[in-house]
Amino acid sequence: MAQYARALSDVGAMYSNWYGQALSLLEPAAGGARSTPATSDHTNTGRGPGALRDTRARYPVVIDKPVVPDAYIDAIPVHPDPVTLSSGDRVVVPFRFWRTQALLLTGSIDLDYASALLARHDERPIPNVQRRATVHIYAPNYAGTSVGPIPAVFASIVVANNQFCGHGYREDGGCLDGEFFWQYRTSSHINHLFKREVWGIQSELAAINFDYLSPVKAVQLQEDGRISLTALWGGASRYRNYRPTPGELRFVSVTPYPKRTHYLTRFRGQQLDTGPSEAPFDPTTDHLYLGEDTSFGSALVAANFRPESWIYYGDYGGVVDIPPP
C-alpha cells in the first residue's frame, strides 16, 4: 500500500510541475532560444547539407488522402492532375487536411490600423463591440495534408463578408465571414512553396514548437533564432472533455498575394468543451509573449494586439476549395 501511495504522489508531482515548466516558455532563454523546431521535412540521407534539397527534387510526392480511411475527408474529390511546385514537388488540389490539432487565440487590434492595412487589398475589417478589429492567431499541427504533415502559425483578420455573397458564399440566408491571411509562418518547405505559389499566401519559414499533449496548451514560434510568439493557455487544464464542433464550420479564406483570391474553407472535428462560449483569456493563468525584434511579433505589437479568448481543437479535418491553376 505504501508503494502504491508513493506512486500516486509521484504522478501528482509530475502534473503539478507541468504548469511551471510551461511558464518557462514565456521568455527567451539567456543566450538565445532553446526549443527544438518542429518540421515535417526531416530527411537524413547522410550526404551533407544539400541532401534534403536533392531528395525532394528526386522524389516528388503526391499525398491525396489519410492512411486510415476517413469518410468525411475521403468523400472530398481531388483534381486528377497534380500541381508542380518550383521545387519539383507535385501536390494535389483542393487542399485537404486531417488529424489536426490547433490552438486558437482570438483577440483584437486597432481598427484604424486594420483599416489602413486592408484598404491596400480592397478589404475592410468588421468592427467588434469595442470598435476594434478581430484577429485570430491559429497554431495548427497538421498530422496530414495534401502537402504532407505540416506545422504552421498564422494571424488572420476577420473582414467584411458582404462581398462574398456575390461568389456564392452564403449560409443560412447570410454571407460567410472572411479571414484575411495577414501573417503566415511554417517550418515545412513544401507547404511554404504551396502557400506562395498555389494558395496565394505570403508565407515565411520559421521554427515552431507545440505542446499539445499536456493539460495546458502552448505554442512557440521562432524567427532567425529569436522567439516571436509564445501563447500559453494555462487554464486549459480545467477542461477535460471534448465535444464535436457545431456542425461543419465554414469561412472564406482571403489571400492578398500575388492577387486577391477567395477560397471556401470548411472543417469539422472535436474541440475542448469549455461550455457555451469560448474560454476567456485569464492573465492569472494564461500568457502571451510577442517578440518586438521579430517580424511576426512586431506586426502584432504595432497593431496593439489584445488577447481575448481560447479554443483548442483536439482533432479535426476539412478542405480549402482551391481549384487547379
Please characterize this protein's 3D structure.
By secondary structure, the chain is an alpha+beta fold. It has six helices and 18 strands. The N terminus is likely disordered.
What is the beta-strand fraction? Answer: 35-45%
Distance from first to last alpha carbon: 67 Å
Give the low-confidence spans: 1-16, 29-59
Any idea what the radius of gyration is?
Answer: 20 Å
Share of helix, binned? 10-25%
Quaternary organisation: single chain
Q: Identify the overall geometry.
A: globular
Would you kindly provide a brief summary of this structure?
The chain has 325 residues and is an alpha+beta fold.
Keywords for this structure?
single chain, alpha+beta, 7-stranded mixed beta barrel, 4-stranded antiparallel sheet, globular
SSE topology:
Layout: H1 2-23, H2 51-58, H3 71-74, E1 83-84, E2 90-91, E3 95-110, H4 111-119, E4 132-145, E5 150-159, E6 170-171, E7 174-175, E8 178-186, H5 189-199, E9 203-205, E10 207-211, E11 217-223, E12 226-233, E13 242-244, E14 249-255, E15 261-272, E16 279-280, E17 287-290, H6 295-302, E18 306-320
